[in-house]
Specification:
- The complex is a heterodimer of chains A (104) and B (153).
- Helix content of chain A is 0%, strand content 51%.
- In chain A, the strands form two sheets. In chain A, strands 4-3-6-7 form a four-stranded antiparallel β-sheet, with no helix packed on it.
- In chain A, a hairpin with a 4-residue loop joins strand 6 (84-91) and strand 7 (96-102).
- Chain A has no helices and seven strands.
- The relative contact order of chain A is 0.31.
- Chain A has one domain: Immunoglobulins (Immunoglobulin-like, Sandwich), CATH 2.60.40.10.
- Chain A is mainly β and 104 residues long.
- Chain B has two domains: 1-33; 36-148, SoxY domain (Immunoglobulin-like), CATH 2.60.40.2470.
- In chain B, the strands form two sheets. In chain B, strands 1, 3, 5, 6, 8 and 9 form a six-stranded mixed β-sheet that branches. In chain B, strands 2-4-7 form a three-stranded antiparallel β-sheet, with no helix packed on it.
- In chain B, strand 8 (125-133) and strand 9 form a beta hairpin.
- The chains are: A mainly beta (104), B alpha+beta (153).
- At the A-B interface, strand 3, strand 4, strand 5, strand 6 and strand 7 of A face helix 1, helix 2, strand 6 and strand 7 of B.
- Strand 5 of chain A pairs antiparallel with strand 7 (114-119) of chain B.
Chain lengths: 104, 153
């Protein structure tokens, strides 16, 4: 369930590329209780990496305070149609997912 | 049409290769990079200290774009732009969350010091945006009021 689909859109702005990415993830805080009173275990994305044409441009570390099914926007200077953007994440259970798109 | 099919196959090949590389290599490196100490800090002061930014000075060059009142604490949109020259990292701290540090983003290779994200907020709190530039640290603060908390579920 954790590694659900990701969606990404990369569009050209004025002199920069806007990268918007959605990740499907429960982002459990470890503080929520199930109906039987047991805590839902901590389960959240820890690292997010954005690459443009294979070069890392953003490395993010995040906590369980990020909302469920996280959405991020990043901006990268320049960019051209067809540039390849790749976003990957890794969670605290070692699960990963990634997606790529070209600038439209 | 034939040409398009070739392209498609090529793209699929690249994706598969990237996926394989992505799954095998960076997991350990990424896991090691996660700043457990800073993320486990229970107050903003300790979190800042763990980030090496205890003496961050207030700056008007960091812009926090967020609602003054968030109706739903489970999804509070926050947009941060640093106009501090040479900003290499932005961190977001929510003072009254159980663990204030929500995220830290390092920018390189032409990435602009900008990030937009959704965070959970347990209650009304000051939100701090920290920018690191050339070994110095700057911080901006904004209060966001929360009417329904986002941490109880």
């Amino acid at each position: 369930m954790a590694a659900g689909p990701m969606k990404m859109r990369a569009t050209l702005g004025a002199g920069y590329t806007d990268v918007r990415v959605l990740m499907s993830h429960p982002m459990e805080t470890g503080q929520r209780k199930m109906p039987d009173g047991q805590l839902v275990p901590l389960h959240f994305i820890q690292s997010v990496t954005v690459k443009v044409n294979g070069k890392t441009v953003v490395e993010g570390q995040i906590s369980q305070a990020i909302s469920r099914n996280p959405v991020f926007s990043f901006r990268v200077r320049g960019g051209a149609k067809g540039d390849r953007i790749e976003v990957a994440w890794l969670d605290n259970k070692g699960e990963t997912n990634s997606t790529e798109a070209t600038i439209a | 049409m034939h040409n398009r099919r070739r392209n498609l196959l090529k793209a699929a090949g690249i994706a598969a290769a990237a996926l394989a590389a992505g799954l095998l290599k960076p997991v350990a490196a990424l896991a090691a990079a996660w700043n457990k100490e800073a993320f486990s800090a229970k107050n903003p002061g300790d979190a800042l200290k763990s980030l090496g930014a205890a003496g961050a000075e207030a700056s008007g060059a960091i812009v926090i774009d967020a609602p003054q009142i968030a109706e739903n604490g489970a999804v509070v949109p926050i947009e941060i732009t640093s106009n501090v020259p040479g900003t290499t990292s932005i961190a977001v701290l929510i003072d009254k969350n159980p663990f204030p540090l929500a995220g830290k983003f390092d920018f390189m290779e032409g990435a602009m010091p900008f990030v937009k994200l959704n965070v959970k907020m347990g209650e009304t709190s000051e939100v701090r945006a920290l920018a690191m530039a050339g070994g110095r640290n700057y911080v901006a603060t904004k209060e966001i009021k929360v009417t329904i908390g986002g941490c109880g579920g």
